[in-house]
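Private note to self, pasted from the team thread so I don't lose it. C-alpha cells:
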C-alpha cells in the first residue's frame, strides 16, 4: 500500500508541474502491484491489520456512494439497509434495492484498500420501510476474505444501559479532493473508532452518544465489555438523517439485531 500511495502522490506532483511533463513508464513489477491492489476479488494474504473487520461498502454506477459495514463471517458483511436501496432523481431513498453487481466491499483501514471483493447477494431485513428498527442488511460476498481477518461475533441480548459502546467506520464531513489536472477525486478517509455510553434502549433500537458522520452508516456498534456487535449505525441526531447537513451527529441510533434475526440467519447460510 505504501508503494501505491507513493506512486499516486508522484503522479499528482508531476501533473501539477504542467502539461509538458512526461510521466515515466512504470516498471512491470509496479504495474502488477497496482493491478493487484485495484482488482476486484483480489485479497492477498498477509496484508490485514487489527480492526479490518470494519469495512467500506461501496455503491457504484447511478447510485454511487459509500457506507461502512462489519464482517460477520468469512464471506458475510452486515451494514444498514438504507445503504443498499436505490435513490430517485432527487437523491431520495426508494423501496428498490441495489443489485449485487452495483456493490463491492473494500478491506483495510487506510484510504487506499488492500483488497476488494464483489457482492453476489443482498438480503435486507424483513419489514424494512425506512425505519430504524429494521435498518439492517446482509451482503454475501463473491469469495471469502483471508482467514486472518477476524469477523465480529453477534450479540442478540438486551444491551446493557450502563455499558460503553464502540463505533468503527469511515465517515467524514469533508468533500473529496480533486487531483490537479485530472478529473479524479480522492477521499482520504481512514478508519476511525469512537466510544460512548448508551443513552436509550428499547425493544426495537438503541441510541448511543457517539460523534458519527455521513459514511458511518452501517458501521458496527460493539459492546466493549463482550466484544460483540449489537447494532449497526442507522441514523444520527436522534433518528434524523444527517446527509442533508453533512455534519457530525452527537447521537447515533441503530436497530436491535433480534428484529432481523431471520434475515441474518438466512444470509449466513448462503
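Design output:
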Amino acid at each position: 500500500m505504501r508503494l501505491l500511495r507513493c506512486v499516486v502522490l508522484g503522479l499528482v506532483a508531476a501533473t501539477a508541474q504542467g502539461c509538458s511533463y512526461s510521466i515515466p513508464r512504470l516498471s512491470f513489477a509496479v504495474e502488477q502491484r497496482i493491478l493487484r491492489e485495484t482488482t476486484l476479488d483480489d485479497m492477498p494474504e498477509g496484508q490485514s491489520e487489527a480492526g479490518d473487520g470494519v469495512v467500506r461498502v461501496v455503491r457504484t454506477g447511478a447510485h454511487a456512494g459509500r457506507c461502512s459495514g462489519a464482517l460477520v463471517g468469512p464471506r458475510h458483511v452486515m451494514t444498514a439497509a438504507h445503504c443498499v436501496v436505490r435513490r430517485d432523481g432527487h437523491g431520495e431513498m426508494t423501496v428498490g434495492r441495489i443489485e449485487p453487481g452495483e456493490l463491492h466491499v473494500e478491506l483495510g483501514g487506510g484510504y487506499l484498500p488492500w483488497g476488494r471483493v464483489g457482492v453476489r447477494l443482498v438480503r435486507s431485513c424483513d419489514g424494512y420501510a425506512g425505519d430504524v428498527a429494521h435498518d439492517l442488511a446482509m451482503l454475501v460476498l463473491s469469495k471469502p476474505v483471508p482467514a486472518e481477518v477476524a469477523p465480529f461475533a453477534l450479540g442478540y441480548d438486551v444491551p446493557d444501559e450502563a455499558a460503553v459502546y464502540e463505533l468503527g467506520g469511515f465517515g467524514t464531513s469533508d468533500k473529496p479532493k480533486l487531483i490537479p489536472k485530472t478529473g479524479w477525486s480522492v477521499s482520504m478517509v481512514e478508519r476511525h473508532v469512537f466510544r460512548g455510553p448508551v443513552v436509550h434502549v428499547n425493544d426495537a433500537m438503541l441510541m448511543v452518544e457517539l460523534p458519527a458522520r455521513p459514511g458511518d452508516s452501517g458501521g458496527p456498534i460493539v459492546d466493549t465489555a463482550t466484544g460483540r456487535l449489537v447494532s449497526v449505525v442507522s441514523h444520527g441526531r436522534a433518528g434524523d438523517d444527517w446527509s442533508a447537513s453533512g455534519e457530525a451527529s452527537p447521537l447515533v441510533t441503530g436497530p436491535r439485531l433480534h428484529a432481523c434475526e431471520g434475515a441474518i440467519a438466512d444470509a449466513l447460510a448462503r
